[in-house]
Predict the structure of High-affinity zinc uptake system membrane protein ZnuB.
Amino acid sequence: MPDFLLNALIAGLTLALVAGPLGSFVVWRRMAYFGDTLSHAALLGVALGLLLGLSPTLAVTAGCLLLALVLVTLQQRQPLASDTLLGILAPTTLSLGLVALSFMKDVRIDLMAYLFGDLLAVSPTDLAWIVGGSALVLLALCGLWRPLLAVTVHEELARVEGLPVAGLRLALMLLIAVVIAVAMKIVGVLLITSLLIIPAAAAQRHARTPEQMAIGASLLGLLAVSGGLALSWFQDTPAGPSIVVAAATLFLFSLALPRRA
């Protein structure tokens, strides 16, 4: 196997592994639009990174974390509904990123790679960021699984039991931000949330427990990455969109199967 294909496979499988349980929380808490807003802001992080001479991955990570904090603060203090606020910020940050990049005449970038991913171009440095970031998120999820699940199932009861509800909500949003930042190289800023949501939605139909759904989502994500890379390699299709198509196919297949009693 060529080195670039091996790097792509390791990066994709690593992200799919952590996207399963995290995506389950995104589905349970109906946070898909929040993920979209963070993913659109990733391009603004790229622009700022290039402007300041920083690593794009580092800049995107810092930008997503900062935006997650800003969103949490605004959602608590502003009079607008959350979906309205997210609907304003998502296109605004994406457009700011595109406009900022257009002014950088001396910087040559592949805009399509940032929008739709360029998995087959993952470098050893990119791979280190992806594996390291995913490992940190997975460890944090393992440690916070029970409290996060309690808050997701019944937030008021969790507050009565003494759990730090606001802190746990913020922690989940920050974890989503980290995954979006490291996933940008794989599926691009426009398709990131699909890798979080589609496998989890497919697994939800046939899972009996939260743990089964999280594990099932990870397994389906691994299949989607493997199938999408195979399609890209043999048919010369773009890798990121091919992974999303594979995930969507698995979702449709899950709908055809009878629901577990």
Notes: Residues 187 and 240 are 4 Å apart (CA to CA).
